[in-house]
Amino acid sequence: MSQHLPKLLLLPTVVLTAIFVYGFIAFSIVVSISNWNSFGINLNVRSPWYQTYLDLFANPRFQIDLRNQLIFTVLFLILTTFIGLVVGILVHNVVIARGFFRTLFLAPYALSFIVAGVVWRWLFNPETGVNLLFDILGVNGALKAAGMEPLKPGWMTDPSVVLSINDALGSVIPPLRDLGLQLGIPVALIPIVIAASWQVSGFAMAMTLAGLGTVPVEMIEAARVDGASSWQVYTRVVVPMLAPTIVSTLVILGWTSLKIFDLVVAMSGSGPGFATDVPGIFVYELTFQAFQYNTGAAASIMMLLAVAIVVVPYLTHTYNRQEDAE
């Protein structure tokens, strides 16, 4: 009996996971290829079965969402990882009050995305945020006295796209020249990236600190003996040895960015002209407001595949490396 006890203890978890994770994933796939929409429950398979996915990718809003998700993920990963790396190295080299600074930079990570989103919305709001702060500091008063316009940030309400690459891609791929979607960085998405990076950079810092603890002190001392400067020590010795830690950070932050929802909802929602719309908002609105259950399920399956593309190769590589070590 004792040899079967571990299996019996794990059985409830296995059953619940099979039902509420894999079972509902399978059900979502069935719904995505069915005719279940606002006209009533209909799980009959569409003809052809992939028609919902064709309609999904032909949807102009979903195309914008894919662009926004790609831009947000790239900017978010670069900014968060860079800040976490720099702050982690600085905190690691602090002699006095290292624990205080570590806690200080990690504190935003303890906040929920909703709380952070509301605060940053206030900061970026032209009427109640930064504009009010400039009034208090007297900056706007000084500008008005000089005959200039007061500072009034409008990022959150700007639907324009900067650094568009449509023309460049159109010269290589002619059909893209007539693409209605502007391939560039939506201005209204920049505050979302800043807010997300501010909140999660503490996690990247913690990962960097953990990685720095595994760097042999002897290698750093040997590099200094050879005449390497502090810049050379970190760029040529420490950072290359942090490569596994950086990859792990990118993977974890990657799947976090791919499912971003609450921060965007709290700050701007879909934004002007869907400039800050993301697949998470698309799934929610299509499913629970427009009652297009098949389209919402199809979009959620696409989000699942995007996360799997990021996570599964990393898990496979980690498992194979552990097998080789044994």
List the helices and strands and how they pair.
Layout: H1 5-32, H2 51-58, H3 60-92, H4 98-106, H5 113-124, H6 130-137, H7 139-145, E1 161-162, H8 166-172, E2 185-186, H9 190-212, H10 217-225, H11 230-241, H12 243-258, H13 262-267, H14 279-288, H15 293-325
Antiparallel strand pairs: 1-2
Describe the 3D structure.
The chain is mostly helical and 326 residues long. Helix content is 68%, strand content 1%. Helix 2 (51-58) crosses helix 15, helix 10 (217-225) runs antiparallel to helix 11 and helix 14 crosses helix 15 (293-325). The longest helix has 33 residues, at 60-92.
Summarize this structure briefly.
The protein has about 325 residues and is an all-alpha fold. Helices cover about 70% and strands about 0% of the residues. It has a single domain (about 60-325), classed as MetI-like fold, CATH 1.10.3720.10.
Any descriptors?
about 325 residues, MetI-like fold, 15 helices
